[in-house]
Amino acid sequence: MRCVILYVIFISLSTNAQKPYLKRNQPASKYKWFLSFSDDFRKESTIEKKWIAQNSSPGHILSSRWRENISIKNGKLLLKNKKEQRGGKEWTSGCITCKTNNGYGYYEARLRISGASGVNNSFWMSAGRAENKNSFEIDFIEVHYPDEIHYTVHDYGIESNSYHTSVTEVLKMGIDLSSKFHVYGVCWNEKTIDFYFDGRIKWSTNNNVCKHIGPMIISTAILNWAGTISDDINNTMMVVDYVRYWKNTSL
Hints:
Elements: H1 2-17, E1 33-39, H2 46-50, E2 51-53, E3 63-65, E4 70-73, E5 76-86, E6 89-93, E7 95-102, E8 105-112, E9 119-127, E10 136-144, E11 148-158, E12 161-172, E13 182-188, E14 192-197, E15 200-206, E16 214-222, E17 236-248
Parallel strand pairs: 3-6
Antiparallel strand pairs: 1-17, 2-7, 4-5, 5-6, 5-17, 7-16, 8-13, 8-17, 9-10, 9-16, 10-11, 11-12, 13-14, 14-15
């Protein structure tokens, strides 16, 4: 009986420890959340188990992306940026896509960005066209050293009417975001998309097109619009402590 009681207490504490990181009186804090997906990056094997690592050279960025740039060490996911000729590019970086598709809910990642300008540190999701619904992308964050956060929602239209429009908010935080871990969250529902930083809402936009499921993506990329590109980028990395997704059980 004592073992059963201790087990119940342990499960309860574990569940409470994985509630969304939200400050009191924030909009998303009023809902009841059920943890649907979690990765604390305890083992290297989790990359293949839960994610798909990119191994290619995308045309729209200045770095190619490879599995070798991704590793897990001391319970952290590392996405390393390197100066090396590969895939026709002068730089390499990393990207993993979740094998699970998710929809409305609360998304959260605790991470520390790369400590050099020119790197786009991203936590995002993308959904293709489904049943004549819009293809879209939600950039939960695109963070540029030292202190700039971009929140963006992209609309790519439907199959019979393809186009690209977007709404964006850019924040200057006034602190070095590579010096410590911060918690980045997004509450996505049928009507709105709310963006959070360290438990507090920073921007909200109407949800006009993001209406179906897609996978979470974690990535780094070398980009001209992410700041000055220099050798300082070499061997920098984005470090991710955890990624979680909750469903709203209040609705």
